[in-house]
Amino acid sequence: MPTVADWMRKEIKKVPHSTTVKAVAAKMKSEKIGSLFVEKKKELVGIVTETDVVRKAVATGANLGKVTAEKIMTTPIRTIEAYQSMQDAHDLMGDLSIRHLGVTQGGKIVGIISVRDLLVYFKRVSEPKITQD
Fold first, then answer.
1. Does residue 127 sit in helix, strand or coil?
2. 47-65 pLDDT tens trace
3. What is the CATH number of domain 4-125?
């Protein structure tokens, strides 16, 4: 059975806690991603998502050039163990109403899995196989 480790993105994309929301949004755009981990003193302390940017900064009229990632990030980072199944990730995201999970191994974040990754996975496993007679 495929595990989260088989489908996660292994590159940890992050920003320092003092990064402005404007810079966070620009990085998300250039990287074509919907979330970034937030780092403080070499430790991942939160995650900032497109939803955080919209709901906690843009919608409140915050100065995007002054408000920092630390002020709008979601903490604690919700995680799932690398050995767990994609169905487990799906269920956990649904239960928590979130779109991103940090993937852990031995208590350390080693990747990220997103709802987009789940869509790709479930599309692949549910596609009928075309055969010739």
1. coil
2. 999 999 999 999 999 999 9
3. 3.10.580.10
Q: Which helix (H) or strand (E) holds 57?
A: none
What CA–CA distances, in Å, run from 53 to 5, 25, 58, 73, 78? 28, 7, 6, 9, 18
Strands 35-40 and 43-49: antiparallel
CA dist list (Å): 111 to 66, 95, 114: 29, 20, 10
- In whole angstroms, give the CA distance from residue 76 to residue 84: 20
Would you mind telling me the total number of residues written for the chain in this entry? 133
* Domain ranges for the chain: 4-125
SS3 content of the chain, % helix, strand, coil (to 5): 40, 30, 35
Radius of gyration of the chain (CA): 16
Q: What is the dihedral of CA 15, 54, 27, 104, to 10 degrees?
A: 50
Reported as a single tens digit per residue, the pLDDT across 67-121 is 999 999 999 999 999 999 999 999 999 999 999 999 999 999 999 999 999 999 9
Q: Distances in Å between the alpha carbon of 40 and those of 15, 29, 49, 125?
A: 9, 22, 17, 39
